[in-house]
Amino acid sequence: MHKLTLYPLGSKKNADTTQIDLNNGKKLLFDFAAVANVGDVDEKGIDLSKTLSEDLDDNGKQGYDITAFTHLDDDHTRGADAFFYFEHSKSHQTKDRYHFGTLWVPANVITESRNDLTPSSKLIQAEARYRLENDGDVRVFSRPKKLKDWLESKSLTIDSRKHRITDAGQLAPELTLGQDGVEFFVHAPFAWRQDENTLIDRNGDSLVLQATFSFNSELTRFFIGSDVAHGALSEIVQISKGHKNEVRLLWDVMGLPHHCSYLTLGPDRGTDKTEPVEDVKWLFETQGQDGCIIVSSSKPIPAKGTNADKESQPPHRQAANYYREVADDKDGEFVVTMEHPKLSSPKPIVIEISGLGAKLKKTQLVGAAAVTASAAPRAGSRAG
Hints:
single chain; alpha/beta; Metallo-beta-lactamase, Chain A; 6-stranded mixed sheet; 11 helices
């Protein structure tokens, strides 16, 4: 079977890290955010570097087959500078570091010139640029004019690097259903959107994918939403419908965009529930399959009336109420990384994907011992 692991990263800061273990032994990592201050007794987030290194060592791996960074915000990159082996920097090539494998990045990782990048984000950008310039192991998603301009500044052309670039509406070529049991369809970023923006929009131009897993002829779909807001999601829906490609927006597992922010759904937070705009409503209510699993990679959902509930930053209680309603209507589950299985001791959310679809592994705490069991299968959907 295949396996998704979504990590509980911090009770004081939102962050995203998702690991995918394929049935054939390949390992993929989406984002790396070691945000937890592990020396803080009140911090419930895991030591991500320690957890991932132990997993890789136990499996005899020196790194990942693919490492993707959906964008360069700190809550998707923090700590990567101390964990990974960087081909462009000799000072970051010690034997205790782990390899990226193929590096997946949206085009704005290459083209961004803002000066607010963190040390980890700067290194990831430099690595992606180094690999693209030297025809190394990198996949860049989308080809805006800014990418053409950057390549020309290096005396290169889009055509000379077209085998390293994949546009929205295409499949990433590194993995196939036949050989790997998974394929990744690219929904965003859009080249035209980046050309229209005067400034880099990291969230709006972040990497959005649909992963389709196959196991014993059963298809299970995982939507990876990064940090996009309702405007970008609506564009994805409209373009998919325009190309009669609605199947690419089916989902059994939803990695919620932007840590359960109401802005993923619509412009207004609402009093008790966020109301989605029409296209986003269709994505969640029509394309979500029965028995779906919705995951919020975030801090705990705040209780009504608390100080956290009044903050502008996610997660937002009103958005969570909408997602719970969607999950309930589909006999599914809404889970939060920092609440699973309970607030005092969050554990990684593990979703197994087999011929029965996707199922959430249940972790129950009995006294001092943790007992892991499996939930009822969450059905995938066959091709058709």
